[in-house]
Amino acid sequence: MSSVRAQNTQTDRSGQQRAVGESDRHADLSDSDSSDNDLLSSDEEEAISQGIDASLESDPEGGLPCPSVKRGRVSVTPASLQEGDPNRWRDAGENDSAPVPPRFAPRRVPGPQLDAMRNYSHSDLFLLFFSRAGIQKICSHTNKQAGKRRAKGSKARPWNAVGKEQFCVFLALVLYMGLVRLPALADYWSEDSFFGGPFCGQLMSRNAFLGVLWNLRLSDPEADEENERKRGTPDYDPLWKLQPFLNDLQASCKAQYHSNQNLCLDERTVAAKASIGLNQSPGDEPAKWGYKLFVLADSLSGYSWNFEVYAGKRRQASGKGLSYDIATSLMDRSLGSGYRLYCGSFFTSPVLFRDLLSKETGACGTIRECRRGYPATKPNGLDRKSPRGTVKWLRQEEVLFLKWRDVSLCTTFHNAQDGRRVRRKIKSRDGTGRNASPPAPIQDYNRRTRGGDQSDQLLDGCSVPRETNRWYKTLFFRFVDIATANSFILHREICEQFGKQPDTQKMFLRALVFELAGELYPLQTTSLASPYAMQHLPEPLARADATSRRSKATRGRQSCVYCRRTEGKQIKTPWQCRSCDVPLCAIVDRNCFSKWHRRFLPSQTHACV
Fold it and tell me: Which helix (H) or strand (E) holds 48?
């Protein structure tokens, strides 16, 4: 049916014009009855012209909407964000269905990876991270650097080639300076007893210590010059002077310990004032200027399992950001499957967590709401008007977003409704106190990230306080701290396995200094009236009344512990230490009794094996 479209233009109160085709309306009336629902009555047109939604409740007589409703635009939640929509923030009482997390299947048994049939001293545990080959390389590079300086006519003091023993003594003095803090380096060799006595002078002269410190090199000087010629090219390595030692230490940390299921990824700053390209200035770290380290630590023990030095733009960047590249490189596949990573807001992103989950690794961490992939949904969200302690959560497939107070969390293996609650007293806006229940994922995150804090505390308790004018030396001393803290954790777990009381960190470092010094430091002079000195006396293994005159020199003999540990020999002796309860040689040409106590006396644990 043809019709002439005559339009009737009307102007409503909002200034909008609405054209209604009367001929089309008459044409629509001739169609099916279903089109009647699309027509507007005069009352509805009047309501729309007044700015009131026609879907609001009308009066009982079917007239215009109730006058109590204010005029203006009324926001209505779209049908896509109603009760059953997955893009809506949900309340704490709504049920959540989390995916099944990957099964925990480590490649090795978690814990120390040591020989169960061997007795480890403090120095044995420490030298696990400084292999003989590694120390020999450092000594060779240091000697070459000293020869290079002397060839250039440097006004250096006479140089004696440094070997493994001298380098261990150098490390002993470095650890001693971390325990005993003095204002200046020269004070450690002061003759004034006020500054600690002649300990350092008996181990190594000041000139010898300064010579090793000045010429210390961790890489080949000739290879350093070749790398410097590549500066400004893609082949230049900014960490070349540190890279050989860094690779050996990373391999040792992974080999001597296998992490437990929960891991903590943290960033740390090594204080330094040198103006080079590696410096960073993090605002929330104690050190306001220095070199940045990214450390992957065990959440249970605090063991530093893997770490990396920030060196600027990465060569093989994934295009997903620095935090993504750091997290994926530190999470080595040699760990196994089913591990759980806890990290801060610097690393957390939905893209990273989904990729880790595809590799059978869960992740949990605080997240910044400006991160790409964070849900931008507003309905039923947490705002300033929400009561304190309100919990909101939203799940996007395997990723769960949770908000509680001012904390935003992202996780791939938690359930929003875990059932675990901890009552905490918080203050309401009206000043009254009430109980609040933090969600289980936030409780778990706070508990698991303590491993990173524990690792920081161990490093701060034994850190070397000396700053040098070379960046690689500053980082080298920090790596010595990491090796010391890891060796102390190994000692602590070994003692727990055998039911022994482990040493404190201070006593462990004290024993380690004596053991690294070896036989260069004489046995401590102790008053004979001291009860501790009277305990360590030689006594025969056999009873005098049960031994005949003919066999009194051979009866009851046992293998000397010191000869077996140091030389690998089975030498019989009839003597033992009364306090240590270990057989030791006590003859003129083989006084193992004195050597044993000189080496193991500072440690009560290993002196009584």
Answer: helix 42-49
